[in-house]
Amino acid sequence: MYWRLYNHLVNQIKSINYNPLKLLETLADNQAAINSTEYVNYGQLYAAAQNLAQQFPVAPSEQSICIGVTGQLGIATIVALVAIVLSGNHYVYVDAKQPVSWLEQQLKRLDCRLILSGSDILPGNIPKDIPLLHFNVDTRPTSLCFADTPASHAAYVNFSSGSTGEPKAIVGILLPNETFDVLSLLRHEFPDVEFEYHVHNDRGLALANTLNVIQAGVNWHSTSCNGIGERAGITDTFQLITLLATRFEQSRFNITNILAVSELTEAYSRIPVSPMQPVVGKNAFVHVARLHQLAMQQDSAAYSIFDPERINNRVSLERFTPLQQQELFLTPFEKSATELKYHRHGPGKRFVMLDKRLVDGSLYYFIARQFSMAGADDSAETGHVDSHIHNCDSVFLFLGDGQDYAGLEVEVDLGGEIRRLHSPSSVFIPAGVAHSYRFIRGCGTYINFVHKGDYHDSLLEITQ
Q1: How far is 181 from 176, CA to CA, in rounded Å?
Q2: pLDDT score of 148 more than 70
Q3: What SS3 state is found at 18?
Q4: Cα dihedral sign, 308-309-312-315
Q5: Distance (Å, rounded) from C-alpha 11 to C-alpha 67?
Q6: What is the mean pLDDT of the chain?
Q7: Sequence-distant (≥ 6) Cβ neighbours of residue 106 within 8 angstroms
Q8: Domain enclosing residue 380, as ranges
Q9: Which of 108, 134, 160 is the last residue of a domain?
Q10: What span, in angstroms and rounded, lies between the C-alpha atoms of 420 and 289?
Q11: What DSSP element (H or E) covers 42?
Q12: Do strands 66-70 and 112-117 pair parallel, antiparallel, or not at all (unpaired)?
């Protein structure tokens, strides 16, 4: 708590260009809470620091001198540190428990000119050739007073850089325990203010910080599906509510359909989810290590953070064959489109060029269909593909048998926009966009690419 107060005070000093009079005028008699029982009057604290700073030796022009601070960390230490900053100097903490010879060596190297001590007990190991200034600060508790902050006003807390004092917005710079302390302090100082917590995941601590803020009593929290947001994102809604529902037994969250919502978010935001994403990632409940598989076969809870059936998922022990053990020179095979949902047989011959059947673990699906007027059927009028949606991007390629790939005519429906295309032609189909096509006439080849090794896994089908 003391270090946090110190950082806050130093940032305040920097923000008004080291003008203590302006700072005292701004803060007046506001109180800074140190813990549940001890409070410090900002005005008195700055006044004490300013008075102490006047006792420092004058530094050479445009230079900063080193001033040591010793004693147990407390309000007096904060006053000393703030006084050093106000005077434009820099400090070093002096641990009086260290041997005198070692302290002498270090302080000489730093050219320390003065040592401050606010402790009632004077330290005994301080080198004799460095002046020791002992001072006292009145730290009697005072009552809280925030008359200028009515409960009807929203409170917005923006942490700045501890190194530069410049604003850095809400970047998730605090550790979880620091987050708990800060928000507990704010709620204590502003008991009638409703806080909302918004934190980014720059250090991978957004969820942990949010949990600590919940424990600190903050009721409103910014989260997003799949944790999407600026830079590294913000707290993930799915991770938070499943944790609250499964670890803390909070029954107000319906987590049944979070996989479907996550899939929709991934498709329409065009931001892919990592397979290792907690809760909703493809590998979240996949166990491939031999030890893990043996344990899961004996006890399904051995390596599961919760029962995946609660979110319409399941445990998988599927293992992919390593690529070095697979044949990478593939033999495509002919297969009717009736194997696919929303498809009928269709004209010509269809060949599976690549999917997970040809390469175990493949992330891609390629098929090629050979069209010829001799192989045309009734689908030239009705089409053999019904409109459908993928949860990933896909591509249509149309190549005729004629010169420069001319000679093929098709009709494509992309998101309700219907166009007749003549080869060569290609169509990019974003995730989440309904589409279909039909052969009209000509000879040539149709190629379909889908960014999923299993075609049916690529279908975006959200049901109630």
Answers
A1: 9
A2: no
A3: coil
A4: positive
A5: 20
A6: 80
A7: none
A8: 333-458
A9: 134
A10: 51
A11: helix 42-53
A12: parallel
d(CA 409, CA 29): 81
- Whether 301 is covered by a domain: the verdict is no
| Residue 46 near residue 82 (C-beta atoms within 8 A) | yes
Question: For residue 40, what are the β-bridge partners?
Answer: 32
Q: How far apart are CA 184 and CA 190, in angstroms?
A: 10
Nearest to 281 by CA among 224, 338, 227, 361: 227
Task: Report how far residue 136's alpha carbon sits from residue 116's, in angstroms, rounded to the nearest whole number.
Answer: 11
Question: What are the pLDDT digits (tens) for 18-50?
Answer: 444 444 444 444 555 444 445 556 667 777 787
pLDDT in tens, 227-240: 999 989 999 999 99
Question: Any idea what the CATH number is for the domain that residue 64 is in?
Answer: 3.40.50.980
* Predicted structure pTM score: 0.62
What's the rounded Cα separation, in Å, for the pair 385 and 7?
64
DSSP 192-255: TPPPEE--B-TTS-HHHHHHHHHHTT--EE--BGGG--STT-B-BHHHHHHHHHHTS--TT---
In a domain, 343, yes or no: yes
Q: What is the rounded distance in angstroms from the CA atom of residue 72 to the CA atom of residue 52?
A: 18
Token pair in block for residue 103: 């302290």
The two tokens of residue 198 are 């918004």
Q: Let me know if residue 314 belongs to a domain.
A: no
Strand order in the sheet with 365-371: 333-334, 349-354, 365-371, 444-450, 394-400, 425-429
Say which CATH number the domain at 382 has: 2.60.120.10
- Pair type for strands 417-422 and 444-450: unpaired
Answer for the pair 436, 361: CB distance below 8 angstroms, yes or no. no
| Phi, psi values for residue 458, rounded to 5° | -85, -10
**Are the beta carbons of 446 and 424 closer than 8 angstroms?**
no
Measured in whole angstroms, how far is the alpha carbon of residue 227 from the centre of its chain? 6
pLDDT of residue 7: 52
66: left (phi over 0), alpha (psi -120 to 50) or beta: beta
Structure-model confidence comparison of residues 110 and 276, the more confident one: 276
Question: Do you know the residue count of the chain?
Answer: 464
Q: What's the helix, strand, coil split of the chain in %, to 5?
A: 30, 20, 50
Number of domains in the chain: 2
Answer positive or negative: Cα dihedral of 303, 305, 306, 307: negative
Q: Residue 138's pLDDT band (boundaries 50, 70, 90)? A: low
Q: Region 107-115: what's the mean pLDDT?
A: 86
- Is 142 domain-assigned? no
Residue whose pair of structure tokens reads 């004490």 in the numeric block: 48
Domain boundary among 105, 134, 163: 134
